[in-house]
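Worked Example 4.2. Consider the chain below.
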Amino acid sequence: MKYSFLNGTSLPGIPWQDKPAGFREGDIPLWRYTENPIIKRNPIPGVARIFNSAVVPYEDGYVGVFRGEQTNGIPFVYFGRSKDAIHWDFDQDKIPFVDENGEPAIPAYAYDPRLVNIDGVYYAIWCQDACGATIGMARTTDFKTWTRLENPFLPFNRNSVMFPRKLHGNYVLLSRPSDSGHTPFGDIFLSESPDLTYWGRHRHVMGKAPEWWESVKIGAGAAPIETSEGWLLFYHGVTGTCNGFVYSIGGAILDIDEPSRVKYRCSTFLLTPEEWYEERGFVPNVCFPCAALTDADTGRIALYYGSADSYVSVAFTTLDEIVDYIKDHSVVRPDDAEIGKH
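Applying the procedure from the previous section yields the following C-alpha cells:
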C-alpha cells in the first residue's frame, strides 16, 4: 500500500464488496453496497426508523450506537450487536444512561450518535437537549453501564465526534456550533480537554465552500482516521435547492499534529444522493456519514451513513484510492490551511 493506517488494527472480517462492474477509470472511488440499505424501517417495536448511527469492532464482532426515531417522534439512542457489521440485533430498550453515582440520567432526546475507542474506553457522543440543542457524552467499558459525562458545550451545537486518541495530552473533538433551528449555516471547529470536563483551545478547522454541494454548511462525520498522510475525515456538506437541503459526503485530510490545519480538501463530493434509499425517505436527499471501519492489512474502509433519515447504508473504498482522489481534487483555501486560531 502507498499509505497506511497509523495505530491501525487488523480487521479481517470487515464488511467488503468489490467495485461494481462498469467502474471506470476516474470514477469517484467510493462505491455502495449492493444490498443497501442494511437497516430498514420499523427495526424494533416502538422505533420507526434507525439512521445516522455509529459502529466499532468489539471482541469477536461489532457493536454500535444507533439513532432510533421512536414512533412518538422523539429520537433516542439504542444499542446494537452484530457478528458481521451488516446484520444487527438491537436492544429493544433505550440505552439506560446513568450519572457518576449510578442514578438514571436520561436526556429528553438524543440523536446522531458517534462512537470511539480511546485506550480501551468507549465514548458515545450525540446531540441532546440542554436548554437547547447541544452535545451529550457518555463512557463505557463493557457496553452495559453507560456513565454520562459533563456536556462539553453550551447550546447550540451539533455534529460532534472525538478523535480516537489524545493529542498533546488532551482529548480532542470536532463540533459544529449552530442555532436552535434547522441551521442554515455551520463550520467545523476543534476543541481540546485535559479531563473531558473542561473544554477550550477552540480552533476553526474549515467552513462551507463555493462548491455547490457544500455551499450552505458542513459538519463532521465519522471519527477521524489516523493515516500516514494525516487525519482522514469523512464529513457532510449541505447545499440548498428549491426543494430543500441536500446532504452529500465529502473528504478532507487534516494535519496529523495540528488538525485544525487542512492539508487537502476534496472539491468534489465523494457520495451524493442518487439511489432510491438516499433520495426518498422521511427527509429526502440525505447521505450522512457517522462511522468507518478500517483494516490495516488490506487498506479497506467500510463507511456507514444515514440515508434519507430513514435507513443505514454502507459504502466501500480503500485508503490508497480515497487519499489519492482527495489529493488529486484538492482545493484548500487560506483560512482552511492555517492553524485555526483567531
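The first strand starts at residue 31 and ends at 32. The radius of gyration is 18 Å. Compare this with Example 4.1 before moving on.
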